[in-house]
Structures are given as structure tokens and as C-alpha cells.
Amino acid sequence: MTHGSILIVDDDPSFRFAMRKSLARLGYDIAEAQSGQEALSALGRSEPPDAALLDLRMEGIDGLTVLRRRGSCPTRIIVLTGHGTVQAAVDAMRLGAFSFLEKPVDTEVLRPLLAQAVAETQRARSGNDSSAPRIVGTSAVIEQVRRFIARVGPTDETVAIYGETGTGKEVVAQHLHLASPRAKRPFVALNAACVPRELFESELFGHKKGAFTGATADRSGLFRDANGGTLFIDELGELPLDSQAKLLRALETRQIRTVGDNKETPVDVRIVAATNRDLLAEVRAGRFREDLYYRLQVLPVVLPPLRARLDDIVPLAEELMQRVTPQRRVFTADARTALESYDWPGNVRELLNVLRRVSLFAEGEAIDGALVRRMISASVFAQAHAERQEQRVMPTPLRVPEPIPHDLPVKPTVTNLADVERQHIESVLQSMDHNITRTAIALGIDRRTLQRKLRAYGYAATGDD
Fold first, then answer.
1. Among 28, 211, 255, 305, which is least packed, fewest CB within 10 Å?
2. 146/287 same-domain check
3. pLDDT in tens, 250-262
4. Averaged pLDDT score across all residues of the chain
């Protein structure tokens, strides 16, 4: 009996040979791919591997393209590269990589990491991975997110989730679905960054056999797959303009047209969309449709980055550690300080990857600060943190979208949106001791926008005291 199946994707035959020998001894079934195209073929099979080691730089189709094109394949992918950069790590994580390691590979890190990846894939296939992870934290900003879910989840309105990469936008989408009457129907997720631009329409709306080259069979499309439930579209800003127009029509008419068909089919789907981009800036640049932007602004919510919720980092780390390892782990006081002293540019996703490494090297039950700092410094995201510390600059906050004009036709379920927004802003303002600059950073908006809103609420003083 094997421990699982591993796909090694690398254009270096000597590396593949060495990895095959090493991992075969551990009881894994090993397959190899010497190119991105071979990797996509293996990941597209009816029974894809449990985990994959994916080289980032290859001739032709590179590793990031493989991540982008793998579709709904459940395989957990560990990206390996000899040319690690912060941007490469961010891109790989944004496209759903399980982890990111630099060559030469430390086998003491890789082997248990592979075991974790295989276990997660097998859990997902068995159906034991269906419930949404808990939303952890007691900070004012995360409590407001919970209140938003409780209030908005039971409605049938479209929701737009804004937040930096790794802040947990899909988790919030899952909770919105579970809080709705659609909870027993499908929750279907699409990462738009992972779909080739020419296949967006087919992915969303399906296609008929023979509709285009390569369409060898009918495809239902994600709208039909999610019928009666919720369709979560992540990285919404990646949708090309023509697909945006068709998505808008589907939202407004609740009908879709399959590629290659001349008739429309009614669908009953709630849309939850997410982005880490400033969509208003994308509208002004001509990359995003203004009418779709305002259609999505019925119920917007912004997820705070980890640096805006420092009090939540340790409880969140404790929760994630339970997910990473069945062994009991306890953070010492110094480890807690180390966790709270880092600004986590990769947010929850980076925290999870650091904790995976911590769990592998921890000796005994207690996790000390030195180990946490060592694993953070090994993170490629840490370079961005060091640069910001040196330059004493904060990351540019994501702008909160302006509320929709009150004269636009909306359904009765959104008449209290202004109250929800005001309660959120006042709660954060109070938690920041009425400091305007810190409140604006926590909310992800600029000071001018915050000051304008506070004046509208009747606040006289809007400076930092």
C-alpha cells in the first residue's frame, strides 16, 4: 500500500531522477513530467496525483501557467524554484500553490510538507473537507465582518469582497453561503486568474460539443453546476471585458447562453465576487466595465489585512496549527511576540505556510520565538517586510469602494447598508482611540474618504489628536 501519488514536474532530468529515488523510498507512487504541457495532461486526468512538485521556470509553459490552467484539479502543488522572488511567491500563492520552496530543496522540510499536501488532497476527495474554516479573532474589524455575514448571508443579493491576497476571501464567501437558504445547494468556486482568457465563457456558461477546436464533449459550465446555490468568482478583475459583459447580463436576466447554442437557459445562482484590485481604478483605466462595477456594489465588504488586526494573530495561529498537525503545540510568550512583530505581507496564507514549517521543526510541545523568527525569515515574503521596515513605509491600503448612489434601484434587503457601513466605521474608530490615520489604514481607505464620511455622520473633529 502506497502513501499517495506524487507528480514531479521539472525540465532537469537529473533533478527528477534524484527526487524519484528519494520519494519512492518513502512509499509514494511517482510520476514525472518534463514540461508544463505534460504536467497539465497529468493534472487533467480523471484521477490526478495527490501532490505535485512543480518547477517554476521551464521552457514553453512555465510553472505559473500550469497553476493558472489546472482548473479545478484538487492536487496540492508545491512550487520549487532556483530563482525565488517575492513576486514569484505572491503569484504562486495567489494561483493556489500549497507552498513555495527554493532550490536546492531541503528534504527535511519537503518530506513532511508533502505528507501534509497528500493528506489535504485525500481529505478533500473523501468529502471530509466540505465545511468552511472558522473565522477566528475578536478584533473590532473581524467582528464587523461576522456581523456583515450574519446580516447579509440570508439575503439573495450579490456580494463583492475586497481584500489583499491571502486575507481569506473564499472563507467569507463560504460563510455567506452557509448563512443563506442555499446552504444545502452547491458552493462552486472559480479563481479567474487560473483560467485562460479564451476559455472564460466556456468555464462560466458551458459549451456544446464542437463549439470550438478542442470542445470534444458538452460542458455544463459553473453557472449550471452552482444552480440553486452560490457561485464564488475570485480574482474578478482578471475577467476580460467581453466576459464581463456576459456576466453582467447573467446577473441582470438570470439567464445564460451556452457557447455554441442559440437559446438561453434560466439559472438560479447567487454571485459572490472577490478581488484584491481597486476596481474603481480599473474602471477609470478602461479594464473593468463601469456598469458591472456598480452592479457589484450592492453589498461590498472589505477584509482587513493581518497587520490591521494584530490581536487576532496569535489566536489565528493557534487555530491554524491545529489544522497543520495533530500534535499539541503551544506558543511561548516570545513566540507570540515574534508572530505579532511581523506585518505578514502574505496575510493568512503566508501565516499558514510559516506554521507548516514551524510544525516540522518544533521539538516537543512548546514552540519558541527563535524557531518562529527563523521560519519567518525563510519566507520569501519576508524580503518585502524587511524593505518596508527599512524604508518605514506601510503597504498601500486597498480602497473601500464608494457606496452605491441612493437613487439606484435596489431591492429592499439593502436599505440598511448605510447603517452597516456606519457601525463598522464607528467601531473601528473607537478601537483606534479616534486616531484618523490608524483608522483609515485599518479600514483600507484614504484619510480624505474617512474624514468625509465622519463629517456626514456629524463628527466635528477629524484630525489626529
1. 255
2. yes
3. 999 999 988 888 8
4. 81
Whole-angstrom distance, CA of residue 375 vs CA of residue 340: 14
What is this structure's pTM?
A: 0.66
The Cα angle at residue 221 between residues 217 and 225, in degrees rounded to 5: 120
Is the same domain home to 283 and 313? no
Question: 286-339 pLDDT, tens per residue?
Answer: 999 999 998 888 888 999 899 889 889 999 999 999 888 878 889 999 999 999
* Domain that includes residue 153, residue range: 140-302
Cell reading at 441: 489604514
Using an 8 Å Cβ cutoff, are 351 and 344 in contact? yes
Contact 39, 7 (CB under 8 A): yes
Find where cell 457589484 sits: 296
246 by Cβ neighbours in 10 Å (0-12 / 13-18 / 19+) ranks as middle
Can you say whether the dihedral through the CA atoms of 91, 92, 98, 99 is positive or negative? negative
| Residues of the chain with confidence (pLDDT) below 70 | 1-2, 72, 83-86, 126-131, 379-421, 424, 431, 441-446, 460-465
- Peptide bond before residue 266 is cis, with ω within 30 degrees of 0: no
CATH number at residue 321: 1.10.8.60
Q: What is the CATH number of the domain that holds 42?
A: 3.40.50.2300
Indicate if 152 and 297 belong to the same structural domain.
yes
Q: Specify the CATH number for the domain of residue 274.
A: 3.40.50.300
